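Illustration: Glucose-6-phosphate 1-dehydrogenase.
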Amino acid sequence: MSVSKDAQQVLASFKDGVCDDCAHLSIVVLGASGDLAKKKIYPVLWSLFKHDLIDKANTMFAGYARSKLSHDDLVGRIKPFLKKPFGKDSESFAKLSDHLGKLFTEDQIYRIDHYLGKEMVQNLILLRFSNRILSPAWHRDHIACVTITMKEPFGTKGRGGYFDEFGIIRDVMQNHLLQILTLVAMEKPVSQASDDIRDEKVKVLKAIRPLKIDDVVLGQYVASNIPGNEESTMGYKDDKGVPKDSKTPTFATAVFYINNERWDGVPFIVKCGKALNEKKAEVRIQFKDQPADIFGQTVRNELVIRVQPDEAVYLKMNVKSPGMSFEMEQTDLDLSYNKRFEGVRLPDAYERLVLEVIRGSALHFVRTDELEEAWRIFTPLLHDIDAGKVEPIPYKFGSRGPEESDELVKKLGYKYTEYNWQPKN
Ligand SMILES: NC(=O)C1=CN([C@@H]2O[C@H](COP(=O)(O)OP(=O)(O)OC[C@H]3O[C@@H](n4cnc5c(N)ncnc54)[C@H](OP(=O)(O)O)[C@@H]3O)[C@@H](O)[C@H]2O)C=CC1
Ligand SMILES: O=C1O[C@H](COP(=O)(O)O)[C@@H](O)[C@H](O)[C@H]1O
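Result:
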């Protein structure tokens, strides 16, 4: 993994004494799975050493459980860089949080949600609050629904044992997707300061009531047979380590309502799943129907913020079909990053986050009260799921998930219009 020029500049500035505590920098990776630490975090740190950008002698990697450091050694010297899981529900989170609270102050702790390190997730704040054209439209008066989706085309890949304890909601919805939701929904912060922004995110969470079984569609993938995809011949329960009677969801669609003046009545639909038809993460803002439509075939505008793959912002629009006709056609204003910012390297999420810890910027890290609220919203539902009260609906490996999810989304008012357009090179 190479270090970006930006990163080198940031780090070079430390060497010039901009960062007072750089000489005593210690990053402790807590709770990260061996694999994640090895594949994502350590290579980033290692590349910084290799370029002589941080001092190995003063930087320490340790698993918290394995750490032999005394309290005094820990406090003041360390920026704990914590990876989820941050508990499994409100109660276990509170225990973990109390324990950490005895060792570190809030501003020392950097809780990673790696989605906050992604280009287009970081872009949400700028996009929303620096474009006058969006501000008035970003409101229940104009928006019919918001959809936040994360899909993966692979299953648990033999990690079923771990996954079965958590399920898709704890794996990605309670953290990554809820974080995106708060950024889409929050009010304009009074400044760019980390705590001003995080205060606004917490307010959004406080305005969401706990989820109930009726707010979700849960699914679990079963085997199919996609040519060339060996994993697709295995259903979730065929993964070793997954009990044969497991009811753990590998797919979930949930609807959230934010009880405030801006969003009252607007469904925020959050969908995620493993073993689906594609890899994709996106935010989709669907606007209301054009009032007093005179064309009869006007389709809804949709603003899509594509987080991955192929970062893009595009706005689905109606235009006159070019030529003599006066027919309407669906098209899009397309800001695809690989075209507009050709050749620009977008750093890996972990690379950004490691640098932000070094820089001491907490903006893209998760605060305790955000997590408290997130667990409050999910805990009753998760307890029902853990107690086996919800039977997940089977869906085929490689499909778009259970049909019941589309039915719920339709019922909530999302209007799907088929749209296919591929640029010609
Ligand atoms: N940079 C880019 O990516 C750009 C892409 N485009 C073009 O946009 C087109 C994609 O259109 P777009 O509207 O964004 O995405 P899709 O039409 O793929 O999906 C739109 C939404 O409808 C849902 N959906 C898909 N199929 C169905 C179905 N059968 N029934 C009910 N709901 C469904 C999707 O859910 P789910 O996500 O769960 O599948 C998603 O929420 C492509 O032709 C692409 O070339 C245009 C400009 C830029
Ligand atoms: O946190 C997690 O995220 C990954 C997906 O991350 P991405 O950056 O590749 O989108 C997911 O596969 C994993 O199950 C989950 O724990």
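Reading the tokens back as a structure: The longest strand covers residues 143-151.
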